[in-house]
Design a protein that fits this description.
The radius of gyration is 24 Å and the shape is globular. It is 23% helix and 20% strand. The chain is built from nine helices and twelve strands. The protein is an alpha/beta fold and 363 residues long. A hairpin with a 2-residue loop joins strand 6 and strand 7. Helix 1 runs parallel beside helix 3. The chain folds into two domains: 283 residues, Nitrilase/N-carbamoyl-D-aminoacid amidohydrolase; 33 residues, no CATH class.
Length: 363
């Protein structure tokens, strides 16, 4: 059994569009957490180098001058910044789950990188589907990004922002016996009073419900919009109304949905810290395990493609994928019959094809 341990959800602004300076600030937060006995720290969505709020404030053409700078400050795997984060995790004997903009050959992804306490990378994931105007900046992940990983603290998974309101995303994660979940959020001060779905009430609820539905602990990290960011991004009175400073709502929830730790004011920076006792999960699982005794797989099932989907495959891999010994036969006509055969019975449409390649009941 894992002994109880301390975990932290970060509530802080980055040094906007400055990868190195934001990395310095992140390492400072890691060191602060270590001084408080924390063993797992969760960072907000795209904390490095900051969430691109300008995409919500103006037409796409108007923010094109910022595109090169954002790309240049998006982290690359194996870079010095990557190595510094790994070293910080090692130096502080801590699991670090960092939200970041990940630059892969020029395409950006909304990433979460999980470093273990030995500094080794446990996972690098991408947001499966960026939300709304985020798709003007970021690419998509694939099924391999929807994974939960075994660690000495427990089974840890992560999602970004509105991935938490996609029911199938959640079920895929729950099915992997997730015990500790990192929920990364950008801030909740956008369109205040004009878009309730983007505000703290709805999105705090999404994190809380995730904990209840999955019977897991949720570390909900949430950035703030600093005054410096506001002055840089909001150069008109209209933009100043659209995006306001603050917006921090970091939270930690137990597997029963109960809030844990001491919350901060929306414009305050720091850490929400709570004790994590995995024994509490058993109580939730006893009542309602959606992928176990409380499921109905005879009625509902999720089809989950966990394989990577690279844009290019070698011929060797393609040949392996096609090396089936099953003889090709034409697909059955549509619509398929509604009355399926009983278990063990042979469907006439699945029976061996007659000479000429047609089914016995084909017309």
């Amino acid at each position: 059994m894992t002994a109880p341990f301390k975990a932290a959800a970060v509530q802080a602004a980055p040094v906007f569009l400055e990868l190195d300076a934001s990395g310095d600030k992140a390492i400072g937060l890691i060191e602060d957490a270590a001084s408080k006995g924390v063993k797992l720290i969760a960072f907000p969505e795209t904390y490095l180098p900051g969430y691109p709020w300008y995409i919500w404030l103006d037409a796409t053409a108007m923010y094109m001058p910022l595109v090169p700078r954002y790309a240049a400050n998006s982290i690359k795997e194996g870079s010095e910044q990557d190595k510094r984060l790994a070293q910080a995790a090692r130096d502080n004997d801590m699991h670090v789950v960092m939200g970041l903009s990940w630059n892969i050959n020029g395409t950006l992804y909304m990433g979460q990188w999980h470093y273990g306490p030995d500094g080794e990378v446990i996972s690098r994931r991408r947001k499966l589907k960026p939300t709304h105007v985020e798709r003007t900046v970021f690419g998509e992940g694939d099924g391999s990004d929807m994974s939960v990983h075994e660690t000495e603290l427990g089974r840890i998974g992560a999602l970004c922002c509105w991935e938490h309101i996609q029911p199938l995303n959640k079920y895929a994660m729950f099915s992997q016996n997730e015990q500790i979940h990192v929920a990364a959020w950008p801030s909740f001060s956008l369109y205040e009073g004009g878009a309730y779905a983007l505000g703290p009430e709805v999105n705090e609820a999404a994190s809380r419900i995730y904990a209840v539905e999955g019977q897991c602990f949720v570390l909900s990290a949430c950035a703030t919009v600093s005054q410096e960011m506001s002055e840089f991004l909001c150069d008109t009175p209209v933009k100043q109304q659209l995006l306001k400073p603050g917006g921090g709502h970091a939270r930690i929830f137990g597997p029963d949905g109960a809030p844990l730790g001491t919350n901060l004011a929306p414009d305050e920076e720091g850490l929400v810290i709570a004790d994590i006792d995995l024994d509490m999960i058993a109580i939730g699982k006893a009542a309602a395990d959606p992928c176990g005794h409380y499921s109905r797989p005879d009625v509902f099932r999720l089809m989950f493609n966990r394989k990577p989907s690279p844009p290019v495959m070698s011929f060797d891999n393609e040949a392996l994928a096609m090396s089936s010994r099953t003889r090709w036969r034409p697909l059955p006509s549509w619509p398929m019959p509604l009355n399926e055969p009983a278990s063990g019975a042979q469907c006439t449409r699945c029976a061996p094809a007659k000479p000429g390649g047609r089914h016995a009941d084909s017309r």
